[in-house]
């Protein structure tokens, strides 16, 4: 399974379980609305953090046909500071 399939499954299972809990009287419909909203909000934040990592972005680009991803190591902080100083000096 890929992440699209897993997220689609979660989107179907959460409301089903919530409906089951309401039908059994464990929670009210109003509570279900708040709980499902919270799960979706937190899940969206976690998903965004996971998908927008540099490694995930590179993997997504690499999956495209005809694309070669080239990564470089992070620059040494002293080099970054020297470049910034040279830019500031004009």
Describe it:
This protein is an all-alpha fold and 90 residues long. It has one domain. Helices cover 74% and strands 0% of the residues. It has four helices and no strands. α1 runs antiparallel to α2. The N and C termini lie far apart (53 Å). The mean pLDDT is 82.
State the gist of this model.
It contains 4 helices and no strands. The chain is 74% helix and 0% strand. By secondary structure, it is mainly α.
What layout of secondary structure does this protein have?
Blueprint: H1 3-24, H2 29-51, H3 54-62, H4 77-89
Biggest β-sheet, characterized? none
Number of strands: 0
- Low confidence ranges: none
Strand content: under 5%
Structural class: mainly alpha
What's the Cα radius of gyration? 22 Å
In N-to-C order, the SSE pattern is: HHHH
| Bulk shape | elongated
- SS element count, helices: 4
How far from one another are the termini? Answer: 53 Å
User: Please, what is the average pLDDT?
Assistant: 82
Number of domains: 1
How is the quaternary structure best described?
single chain
Helix content: over 70%
List keywords for this structure.
90 residues, mainly alpha, 4 helices, 0% strand
């Amino acid at each position: 399974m890929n992440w699209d399939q897993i997220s689609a499954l979660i989107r179907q299972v959460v409301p089903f379980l919530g409906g089951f809990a309401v039908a059994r009287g464990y929670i009210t419909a109003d509570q279900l609305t708040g709980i499902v909203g919270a799960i979706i909000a937190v899940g969206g934040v976690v998903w965004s953090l996971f998908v927008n990592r540099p490694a995930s972005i590179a993997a997504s680009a690499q999956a495209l046909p005809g694309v070669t991803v080239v990564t470089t190591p992070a620059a040494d902080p002293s080099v970054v500071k020297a470049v910034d100083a040279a830019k500031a000096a004009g």
